Amino acid sequence: MKRMKLVAIVAAAATFGAFGVPGVAGARTISDGRGVTSTSIKVGGLTDNQQPEAAAGAKARLDAENDAGGVNGRTFDYVGGQDDKGDVSQSLALGRQLVQQDGVFAVVPVVTPNAASAEEFFNQQKVPFFGWGINTGFFKNAYGFGFTGAVVPPAPVKTAGSTWGDLVSQLLKNNGDAKGAKGKTAAVISEDNDSGTTGAEVIGASAKAAGMKVPYQKASIPAPP
Question: Pick the residue with more confidence: 129 or 147?
Fold first, then answer.
């Protein structure tokens, strides 16, 4: 129970804060678990070579929380974001490094389509991780928290979240279009890898569920070497 309270604190103060949501301090907890002392919470990130700025955003939010006094007497110790350079094997190796060598309590953010194996490892080690659920590792993982949910379920895809279509529809309504996404046209283009192939199918379904026409839906962008 104490560990789960601290998970909630990290989620509120760090992950979603990187996207503009203010941190919220939970009840005071005491833990001698990995990465947590009476004065600090150790956190690291895992990204790929296309989105390294995600780790910088997480650090900026954590720094802001530290400047405001931290969370219940603890400040965040951010060990940095590890870049897997688009390599699946590197993603797992770096995930292991964050846990076994750096001793982090949580991984913030996880923003790479290559991290499914690393996320399985995090789950085994009971390490919370937060980010963009763009691979299957976020799916049915008790320690994974995607800010848009697990948008890439494992094959075969039987159900999919409607997040993308709903958000686009709401954006259009907020800008004065009463119909939202209904009747609009969208093209879905993704990278030619497992995450991109499944992601295109899921996002295409979400767009159609919001009432959009999808004349083009392919994983046609060459994956990084």
Answer: 129
Task: List Cα–Cα distances, 110 to 39, 47, 116, 154, in angstroms.
Answer: 25, 6, 10, 18
pLDDT of residue 223: 74
- Coil vs helix vs strand at 29: coil
Q: In this structure, what DSSP letter does residue 178 have?
A: T
State the Cα–Cα distance between residues 133 and 116, nearest whole angstrom: 10
- The sign one gets for the Cα dihedral 86, 155, 153, 160 is positive
Centroid of chain to Cα 9: 16
pLDDT at 225: 63
Instruction: Say if residues 46 and 81 touch (Cβ distance below 8 Å).
Output: yes
The pair of three-digit structure tokens given for residue 112, joined into one six-digit string: 């790479």
Q: Of 127-131, 136-140, 176-180, give the lowest mean pLDDT range.
A: 136-140
Nearest to 224 by CA among 49, 46, 29: 49
Query: SS in 3 state form for 113-158?
Result: CCCHHHHHHHHHHCCCEEEEECCHHHCCCCCEEEEEEECCCCCCCC
Q: CA–CA distance from 178 to each of 8, 162, 173, 181, 185 (Å)? A: 36, 19, 5, 9, 16
